[in-house]
Protein 1
Amino acid sequence: METLTALRVKIRKILIRSTNWIGDAVMTTPAMGAVRATFPEAEITVAANPAVAELFSPHPSCDRILVFDKKGSHRGIPGLVHFAHSLARKEFDLAILFQNAVEAAIISRLARVPLRAGYKTDCRGFLLTHAVPVGRSERRMHHTAYYLHMLECLGIRGGSGNLSLACTKAECDWARTLLGEGFWVALNPGATYGSAKRWYPPRFAQVADRLVEELGARILLVGGAGETGIGEEIEHAANGRILNMTGKTSVRQLMALLANCRLLITNDSGPMHIAAALGVPIVALFGPTDHTTTSPLTDSWRLVRKPVDCAPCLKRSCPTDHRCMEAIEATDVLQAVRDLVGRNTQP
C-alpha cells in the first residue's frame, strides 16, 4: 500500500470523518494534529454529528466543520446520499475515516473522494483505497494510540501527540463571570453510553460535602440533558450549596466551565476526556469499562477502580449486581482527591 505522504503534493483538501462519541472524538485530536503537521498547506474539514461538530468549532487542527445530522436533515438513506453529494461538490482529495463504520466509507465513496483511508473494519475494505488492517493488538491499544497507529501506517506522523481543545476568549469570559472566584470542583455523575458506567448520586453528594469541609471547595455539577434527574438527586442530597448546570450547557459552554475548574471527579465519559485535553486534574471512576484503552490521556489524574472478576465487561447496563461500582466508596474517591491535589491545598 502506497503511503499517503508520497502523494503529498496532490493533497490540498482533506476530509476527516470524526467519531460519533465526544470522548472518542477528543481522543482523535492527537491524530488530527498529525494530519495538520503532515499536510500543513492543506485545507482540513471535519465531518461530524452536531455534538462533536460543536467540540471542534473552532479547533487548531481543522479549518472548517460540516455537520452530518442523521437525526435531522440527513436522516435515512436519502439524507446520507444528499450529504455525500454535498461533499462531492467540495472536491476533496483525501478522506481520513476515524469512524470505523461502513457508513463513513460509503459516504466518502459516494462523494467521489479519490483517496479514502481508514481501518479495514465493518467489511468496508473494498470501499477504501488505503485500508489499514486491524487485529487483536490494535484493538487493545489505548484509543488515542489506535488512531495514531492507523495514520502511521499511512505515513502520517507529527504533531505534539497530546490531546487538544480550544476555548475562545468569549467562552472563557462567560465561564469566569458565571463561576466567580473559588476552588471549583466539577462533578460529572452521568455517562451517555449507559447506566453501568455511573457511580451513585448519594455517594457523589457525600464527596461534595467532604470537599466543601476539607478544601473549602465550591461544587459544580455538569452533565447532559438526559442526566438532569441525576444532578437534582445530588443537589438535594448534599448539605452545601451546589451550582447545578446539568443539562443547561452547550458542549462549548461545558468546555469553558471545566477549563475554569481546579478538579473534575467523573465517571468514564466524554467530559473526562474534555477535562484531560484542557489540562484539568481528574479523579476518574472506572467500573465496566477498560481503563487501559479509554483512560484520560494526562499525567494529572487518579484512577478509582475495584478489581472484580466480571470487569471490564463493556456492557451498557449491569445484568447482575453492579459490583464494580458498588464496591467504590466515597472514602476511595476522597483519598484519590487528596493524593492528586494534596491535603493542604487552599482555595
Note: The mean pLDDT is 95.
Protein 2
Amino acid sequence: MTSSLPKPLNSPITPAPHLPPLENGDRLTRPEFERRYQAMPGIKKAELIEGVVYMASPLGFKSHAEPHGNLIGWLGVYQSATPQVEMGIEPTVRLDIDNEPQPDGVLLISPASGGKSNLTVDGYLEGAPELVVEIAASSAAIDLGDKKRAYRRSGIQEYLIWQVFEQKIDWFGLEDGDYKSLPPNQQGVICSLVFPGLWLDVAAMLQGNMPQVLATLQAGINAAEHQEFVQQLIAPRS
C-alpha cells in the first residue's frame, strides 16, 4: 500500500500552475487538499486533520524509525497468521471531508469478512480501518487531540499510540462512542478486543525486546480465541 498520493520521484517541491502551494496550517477541504498535494510531488508526507494541513518534519531513528519498525513487525507477524486481515504502512486514508490522515500503520479486516474500510478505484483506503497505530514524538499533541477525535468520530475501533519521549503506550478501544483505555492484564499484556490473539507485552516493546514481544504475540496466535476468530473470518468465503 502506498504511503502517500502518487508522485514522480526526484521532483522539486513546486505547485502546479494556478494552484497555491500546500503549506503547514492551511485550512482546506479534502478535495482541495488532494489537488494541492498531488501538484507538489516533492512533499513526502502531509495529512489533513480536522480541516488543517500538517506536514511531517524529518524523523529521527530512535524517536520514530526504530519504534515504528518494531510495531510494524509485530503487526506483520499477526497479519501473516490471520487470513482476511490486511496490514499497511502509512496509507492515505480518506475518512471524511475534513480528514485524510496517513497513520503510521493500520490493521484492517477485509470487506468480504465484514471490515469497515475498502479500497477506492484509485487505490486508497476509504472508511475506518479497525486498528490504527501512531508513533508520537513531536506530534503527540496532534495524535492525542484532533487526530484522536477524528479517529473516534469516524468509528475506528482501536487506536494505539506510542509516546516515545514519555516511554508510554496507550491502546484505546471504542466503547459507546468514546475511546476507553484497554488495560493490561496481570502480566502486563494488552489484548485486542477487535483482533483476538493480538497481544502486546508493553514493557518488552518499550524496551525494544522484540524476542519477548513476538513470543507473547505467538502465544496469542496459538490461543483458542484466535483460532475461533480465523474461522469467523473465513466463513463468509466458504
Note: The longest strand covers residues 168-175.
Protein 3
Amino acid sequence: MNQADIAAIRAIIVRHKRRDVMFGLLGIVCLMAGLLTLVALFTDMYVAGSERLGVEFFTNFPSRRASQAGIFSAWIGSTLVMLVTAATAIPLGVAAGVYLEEYAPKNLITDIIEINVTNLAGVPSIVFGLLGLGMFVQTFGLGRSILSAGLTLALLILPVVIVATREAIRAIPQAIREGAFACGASTWQTVRDHIVPYSSAGILTGVIIGLARAIGETAPLIVVGAAVFIAYLPPLPYSGDPPAGLFDWLFADFTVLPIQMFNWTSRPDAAFHANAAAAGLVLVVMCLAMNGLAIWLRYRLRRNIKW
C-alpha cells in the first residue's frame, strides 16, 4: 500500500468522522428544541395556574364562578376510573403475556395473535372509545358509568401490558427455566416461583407506564359518556337512605381531570383558563409521580433479585 492509498483512507476516515460529529450536533439541536418546547409549555402552565393551587382547589366542586371552582369530583372520578382500569388490565394483561410466552404453542394462530396484539398498541384511542360505547355502554347495558370508562381504558392499555410482560419474560435467561425443569418443577411452578418474580420489575414498569397513559386520555371517555360538569360524588358504600350497595359507585356518573380541563378551556373567561392550567399541573405531577414510581420499583426489585 503506497502513500496515496494511505492518504485516501485517512481522508475517508476524516470525512466519516466529520459526518458523525455533524449528526451528533444535529441530534443535540433536535433534543434541545424538544426539551425547550416542553420547558416553555410547562413554565407557561405553571405561571398561569400556580395561583389557583390550594386546598380549596382540591376540595371544591366545579362551579360557574371560576374563583370557587375546584377539581374535587374530577380527581375522585379519575381515581375510581383508574382503580377499575388497573383491576381489569393488570391481571388480564399479565396472564395473557405469560401464556403467550410460556404456554402457547408456536404456530400460525399464535403468530396472528401476537401480530394483532402488537398492532393494537398503536391504534388511536378514539377507536377504543367507540368499542367501549358499542360493547359496554350499549350491548352490555352498563350505561355511561365509571365501570364502562374503566373497562374501556383497560382495553386501551391491555396491549401495552401484554407487550411489556412478554418483553420482561424474554429477558429471563433460559438457564433459569432449564434449572427448574431439571429439579423436577412443572411449568406452572417454574412460572410462579422463578419467571414472574424475576420479571416483576419490567412488568410493573410497563403496567405503571400504561396507567400513566390512561389517566391522561380524553377521547375515549368523551365517547363513553363522561360528564363535563358534576357537582357531586359517587355514592359511598352503605351510605344514604336507603343505603347504597357495595358496588353502586361503579354505575354512577363521572368526570375526570382531562374532561374538566376541556370544559374550562372551552369557556371564554380567562379565569377558567387559569383553572385548566392548574388542573393540567396536577395531571402532569400525577403522571410524573407514576413514572417515578415505576423507576423506583424497577430499581428496588432488580436490586433484590439474586440470579
Note: The mean pLDDT is 84.
Protein 4
Amino acid sequence: MRRVRDVMGMPVTADLRDERPDAAAALDALYAELERIDAAYSPFRGDSLVSRVNAGALDLARADGELADVVALCRRYEAATDGYFSAWRGARFDPSGLVKGWAIDRACRILDARGFARYFVDAAGDVRTRGERAPGEPWRIGIRHPVERDKVARVVLAYDLAVATSGTYEKGAHIDDPHTGRPATELLSLTVVGPDIVVADVYATAAFAMGRRALDFIAARDGYEAYAIDPDLRATWTSAFEAYCEPVTA
C-alpha cells in the first residue's frame, strides 16, 4: 500500500509492501505522527513550541519532555560536527535541520512496532527503507541530478538503509555555514548513506556546509558513506560508497 501526503511543507511518500489488513491504519498513524511533530516544531507555525521559544513565551533552558530531548540532540550533533550543524541562528532556535530526519525515524518506529518488515518512507529526498522491495529485490533510491532535474546521478540499492541528500535543488543556496553566516556554495549536492536516518540527515546538512571537506568528514564516521557533486558537475565519493550503488552502465 502506497500513500503520498503533504506534511511538514513537503510531499511524504510511504510504501508498505507487507500485505496486511492493518496497512491503512498503520499509514494513518504514521502521518498523524508527522503532523503532530510539524505542529510542535515548525518555525513557520505561530503556535508551535519553536515559535513560542523564539517569542520568549517558553524558556528553552527549562524545557522538559520531548522538547528537551530535541534540544539535547541538537547540541549533541552541533558538537559532533564541529558546529557545522547548528539549530541556533543568532538568538533564534530552529531545529529544522534535525527534525525532518528525526520525524522520519519516529514514523518508521511506528511501522516497526506494528511488525511491518518491508517499507519505504521518503520525505523530500530523505529516505528510510526496511527489508526488500520485492523478494530478492532491494529498494532503488535515485540521487537526483542537481542540474538536469529529469535525471538521476546514481541509484542506491537499499535494504535496511537511510539515505539523506542536501543540496540546492528547490531552494537554491539555502544551507549556511554557521561559522560565517554565509551560504555554502562549494557543493551542489551531498548524499549520505548509513544505518540511521537522523544521523544521515544531520551529517548531510553539516557536511554540505563544510564544502570540500565533506567527504573527509563522512569517511571518518563508521558506517556512513557519501557522494558529492560540485558546481563543475564533478562527482566524488567516499571509498565504500559504490558498494551501495547500482553499477553505472555506458
Note: The radius of gyration is 18 Å.
